[in-house]
Write a structure and sequence with these properties.
single chain, 906 residues, alpha/beta, Rossmann fold, six-stranded mixed beta sheet, 39 helices, TPR repeat
Length: 906
């Protein structure tokens, strides 16, 4: 117990070097644990772990992130003994400390850490109530308010109001006379909330922040509390930098003065993290400064940011590094110092990638990337300014489809050596189960409280994801590797770093007759990168054209979602508008005339537009310029990975035909479509699952046959969920209407359950099956939609649709498409796109007379008699044909009928 007491003395010691005192405390508590063991002295063991955690929380030496992890581990040890029933007071203290650790945690997902902190604070408050433990209650309430101040989830404005309310409640207990130190701490934090406040008048809020900081400085003097004094002065500096009232010039000079004073206490040697924060704040003030030479001020800002980044490295402090690296990049941009700007943006990007690694589900990874997309835009532009076009393209690629690229990179990593097949099968199962659970958590993250008005009490509650099952699966996987794989292949690793793809490697993916056109919507322009075997050309639009593009897509979407008839009638005009905005004819001049094949890589909301059908000035469409077809890939890295899984065989068909749904009408042309498609495959190699049998359970029961298929065709209803893209689905059978949403085959389930490594082509004869998430706030271009799931499952090509398609046009299109497909070499790259483009021309130019001859032919009428068991459905289909024939001279000339179909992959 002497060592425990000694540890507490060191922890609370004022005299002597703070760093050494804390190290002395760690030594003392560590020695104490050798005597007070879990088995012999459980209570004391728990107490010492709690004390040890407090020292690690405050520790100056060592890695800050690692110190906090040690504190969290030690606190969780204490909780094994200090249960709620046996030791409620002690347990609540540990919970409060644990919350503090999560509040300040560097590792892990920041959003999740803050929710954990809120949860633990609220748990602690159930014991440490205002009535019984008012001082403890105030301490916890104060820290809870701090968690709300920095909270990421929930409504930001409301979180800040909750923080203000909580701090004001704390001040009823913490008053100037009885608890001056604690009162000043709360005043300081109240100032922080007012500085960040969204509601109310901004100028008033900043004055309230200054008032609170000034109050805090009545106690936090340089002489009595130098560290705390510096903290509040630092906050004042940031507030005066943004101050609206008063003389702007003087406010900025005051801000510089405050930061300069702070650096007398926050030195690099003693408080490196605080020193770095102060350098960053000082830099921001110099950027805004009015007095002095502008060039000198910006040089001072850059110098301060470089100093800050000596501490704020991508690994040690990724969130701070992102902010400071961004500031350095933006500042260097102002003086056209492109190399320094690149340094800042590059550090910020490394930090973003580290932050993403800590996120536990793909939705959070996507949000993190979206929030940092400006740094990618910045570095791309800087490299273009230096005429380093190849490096610019590398960073364009680095910002796209990160999650899917990672999944595909790791999908086919297998251990070497004589590993039993049963172990490989279990390895596959667990990996896919983990991906499926990650998708489920992503859906939960994206759909939580959507459109729901929450009460104040609900808004206060922590928003925690349940990672129990995910952690369980990961534990099972790690155990399998440790027990069954590592003894045979010690080098085996599930994860593999995804390297950026250089221009030379991109060029190796194409032949001399192929060009890649990669579009990129940056912060103030549209960019186009044209890659051929001969080199790289870049086109960049004006800021005005980018604005036109944003307005265009708003109008396009609004019409599609709210006035479908007008959208159909105006679709040709929409495509002409887009062609002008993107200056397609000018872009084509960057592509050698010898190139006969084009691979399109859209960006953001351009994924939902049939770019290959954009009209040209000569009256043709873009795809007609390329005799060997125009297809799509999500990124060059995806192209590389999909090429590795290219399939040559095309003899086994697995088709889903017209699943019976109580809530949906049957697809009129589905039976005819499948009948005609199946004629191109041998009967013994064709599996057709139709009507009530076309369920998810049937797919599960026939998993082996599904896995063996070369062509998987879905003729069914589909839907894209723009609010929750991972809930996008193909609508399978639910004849009685009992299954509801669970009858649907969702994107998340495809990721988890489908293995299509023999498949050459997946085709969706289903509405909205090719739409990709492209909301205004989803600029990370993660390519979330049904095609991504089937590419991950193993198919080398996916044919899908970009809107709610016409049933007759779709039936005719698919019939012709498969007829042509069986007459070419399917193993050739781009063959799917070639046939799809030719089919689009065929449907667009099919005239009324020819359609009438088809309709009236005896052979076709006999076919209709055979495939339509229901006479009413046959009559409806006949009516569709009659109506089409009357749309003279070309029934399907409107782009609505023929442009919806796209080919993605190789």
């Amino acid at each position: 117990m002497t060592q425990n007491n000694l540890g507490n003395v060191y922890n609370n010691r004022i005299i002597g070097d703070k760093t050494e005192n804390l190290e002395g405390g760690i030594t003392a508590f560590t020695k104490a644990l050798k005597v007070y063991t879990f088995e012999n002295f459980p209570y004391e063991w728990a107490m010492i772990h709690n004390n040890l955690a407090n020292i690690y929380f405050n520790r100056i030496r060592g890695n800050k992130a690692d110190n906090l992890e040690t504190a969290i581990t030690s606190l969780k040890e204490s909780l094994k003994i200090w249960t709620f029933d046996a030791f409620p007071y002690e347990r609540s203290g540990v919970l409060s400390n644990l919350a503090n650790a999560y509040n300040n945690r560097i590792k892990g997902d920041k959003a999740e850490n803050l929710e954990q902190a809120i949860f633990y604070y609220q748990e602690a408050l159930q014991v440490r109530t205002f009535e019984i433990f008012s001082q403890d209650w105030a301490d916890i309430q104060h820290n809870l308010a701090t968690a709300y101040l920095y909270r990421i989830r929930g409504d930001k404005a409301e979180n800040l109001e909750q923080a203000i309310s909580a701090y004001k409640e704390v001040l009823k207990v913490r008053n100037f006379d009885d608890a001056p130190y604690e009162w000043a701490m709360t005043q300081n934090n109240l100032g922080n909330v007012y500085f960040n406040r969204i509601r109310g008048d901004k100028a008033d809020n900043l004055e309230m922040a200054i008032l609170a900081y000034t109050e805090a400085l009545k106690v936090r003097t340089f002489e009595a509390f130098p560290y705390e004094w510096a903290m509040t002065k630092h906050n004042l500096s940031g507030t005066y930098s943004d101050r609206i009232r008063g003389d702007k010039t003087e406010n900025l000079e005051n801000a510089i003065s405050f930061s300069t004073e702070v650096l007398k206490v926050y030195t690099f040697e003693d408080f490196p993290e605080n020193w770095a924060a102060t350098q960053n704040t000082l830099a921001i003030v110099y950027i805004k400064r009015i007095r002095g030479e502008r060039a000198n001020n910006l040089e001072n800002a850059i110098a301060a940011l470089n100093l800050s980044l000596e501490v704020y490295t991508p690994m040690a402090f990724p969130i701070n590094c992102l902010q400071t690296g961004r500031n350095l990049g933006n500042t260097a941009n102002l003086i056209e110092d492109w190399e320094t700007a690149i340094k800042g943006y590059n550090l910020a990007i490394k930090a973003v990638e580290n932050i993403r690694l800590q996120a536990l589900n793909p939705q959070r990874k996507q949000e993190i990337l979206s929030e940092a997309m400006d740094v990618y835009h910045g570095i791309v532009q800087c490299y273009l300014n230096l005429n380093q076009k190849d490096r610019a393209l590398e960073y364009v690629e680095r910002s796209k489809t990160r999650y899917l690229v990672q999944l595909l990179t790791e999908r086919d990593i297998y251990p070497k050596g004589n590993i039993p097949q049963t172990i490989i099968t279990e390895l596959d199962r667990l990996r896919r189960a983990i991906i499926g659970e990650e998708q489920r958590l992503a859906i939960q993250e994206q759909t939580r409280n959507q459109g729901e008005i929450l009460t104040l009490d609900q808004q206060r509650q922590p928003i925690l994801n349940d990672y129990t099952h995910l952690n369980q699966l990961k534990q099972e996987l790690n155990q399998l590797i440790a027990d069954e794989i590592t003894p045979i292949d010690r080098a085996f690793s599930l994860t593999q770093k995804v390297e950026s793809i250089p221009l030379s490697e991109i060029q190796s993916l194409i032949d001399q007759d192929t060009a890649i056109l990669e579009l990129y919507i940056a912060g103030d322009s549209i960019m186009a990168f044209v890659v051929t075997s001969q080199g790289l050309n870049v086109w960049q639009s004006s800021a005005e054209d980018r604005e036109k593009l944003i307005n265009f897509i708003k109008n396009y979407r609004d019409a599609y979602e709210n006035n479908k008839t007008a959208w159909i009638n105006n679709l040709n005009d929409y495509l002409n508008q887009l062609s002008e905005i993107l200056q397609i004819d000018e872009l084509l001049e960057l592509i050698p005339k010898s190139c006969s094949r084009l691979i399109l890589i859209p960006h953001w909301f351009l994924h939902i537009i049939p770019l290959h059908c954009l009209p040209l000035k000569n009256g043709q469409f873009l795809y007609q310029r390329f005799s060997n077809g125009v297809g799509y890939v999500p990124s060059c890295q995806l192209l590389k990975l999909v090429k590795l899984s290219q399939r040559d065989n095309f003899t086994r068909l697995f088709a889903i035909k017209n699943p019976t749904r109580k809530d949906l009408k049957p697809l009129l042309g589905a039976n005819l479509e499948i009948e005609r498609i199946s004629q191109g495959f041998a009967t013994e190699k064709t599996i057709i699952i139709g009507e009530s049998e076309a369920s998810e359970q049937t797919l599960e029961n026939r998993r082996q046959e599904l896995q063996a298929s070369h062509c998987l065709h879905f003729s069914c209803h589909g839907k894209f969920d723009n609010e929750s893209p991972r809930d996008s689905a193909l609508m399978l059978a639910d004849p009685d209407g009992n299954l509801g949403e669970s009858a649907n085959l969702t994107l998340a389930e495809v990721f988890e359950k489908f293995d299509l490594r023999e498949c050459r082509l997946v085709t969706f004869s289903a509405c909205e099956s090719g739409i990709i998430e492209s909301k205004a706030d989803s600029i990370s271009d993660e390519y979330v939609g049904l095609p991504s799931g089937f590419l991950f499952a193993g198919s080398s090509s996916v044919v899908s649709t970009l809107w709610t398609v016409d049933p007759l046009a779709t039936t005719l299109f698919m019939t012709k498409f498969y007829y042509s497909l069986k007459r070419i070499s399917i193993r050739d790259e781009g063959s799917i796109a070639i046939v799809l483009n030719h089919t689009q021309t065929w449907l667009r130019t099919l005239n009324s007379k020819k359609l009438a001859r088809i309709k009236d032919s005896q052979k076709f009428q006999q076919l209709l008699d055979r495939v339509f068991e229901n006479k009413r459905d046959r009559r409806k289909f006949q009516d569709l044909l009659e109506a089409a024939v009357k749309r003279q001279p070309y029934p399907f000339a409107n782009p609505y009928y023929w442009t919806a179909f796209i080919a993605t992959g190789v």
